[in-house]
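Listing 4. Sequential folding, example run.
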Amino acid sequence: MILSSESTGMVLLGLAAAAAYAVPAAAASRIAPRGVRFALLLAWLLHAGVLMLGLAGEPPRFGFAPALSVTAWLVLTVYAIESRLFPQLQARWALAGLGAFTVLLSLVFPGQTLHVSASPWLPLHWALGIASYGMFSAAVVHAWLMTRAEHRIRQAADPHSGVPLLTLERLTFRFVAAGFVLLTATLLAGWLFGEVLYGQAWRWNHKTVFSVLSWLTFAVLLLGRSRFGWRGRRALRILYIGSGLLLLAYVGSRFVMEVLLSRGGA
């Protein structure tokens, strides 16, 4: 865990963010809605502070746990916007728990020190990749909400107790489409400008193989939905497979390098 004096502020901020997330995660049913929203907003702001300290610190760090932390923060941002449009969305406790877990995980595994790059375009490439993670993660959250809505329908529950199933389906595939565009841009940038960004040409390593496999999976999903009307469990199954492959692409490879092999590298 980070114990240096320079990182004390980040640790305290991270613990405060996790504590704020724990409020709606553990006691949402016993707190007024306004209190839950305030706790989530506070946690979201503290979480952003942790991310900024990690990426802008001396030295800046990044790895599998910070990548998960950024992804969770983006999903929470999407949820905050959507909850204003669809007050029926009920995922606060789950997303708050996810936020708390990823913040604490990033404190334990802060990642490797980032090397100074000569390319000013490298942060943009990373931003595209992380944004695609966020969009696909939001799609997975909505797919989970779809499964819950379908279960409520099968149990003959109140049909007005949540967001309609068809609305959730549309939102899910909008996030898939947005994530696919961002992932395509990320892969094209790495393929065409890899030497400028990283000082080396495109390489077929574990990260690129899993990234391309995930891209192909999402392409099949979008094509199947467009041409053959795929929906329901078949579509969600393919979404989960593609998201799992994408998770393995960076987070999985960095976890192996940082934790199992204890090695650095890009």
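-- end of first protein; second protein begins --
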Amino acid sequence: MDARATIHDYYDSLRHGAPLDTFFANDRPEDDAVVKVGISERLVGSDSVQEGLRDQTASTSDWTVDSHDLRVTQRDSVAWFSDEVTLAWDERGERREFDTRWSGTLERRDGDWSFVGSA
């Protein structure tokens, strides 16, 4: 699977309420540098990112994720992307919707792509 397919799988997992923590790097000591910036939070370090994504999956539902301009550049072991994404979801009985811009970096590890930064 290439980096673009990994990003599409992440979007699909978000839409379907599937676990997201497996998409982020978490198997090396240097993974404390992993960062995920969301609409209302900044998660730093693998443990924080993993916990935040598990909490998000548990507390939200009915996601809409519409990608409008995904651009991906992939090299041997690193890839980066940007996109314009319309997001909507239900959280505690309230519908939330945002037009967002996403960017991030992925690293290939043992043949698989993992996010190491996402904003």
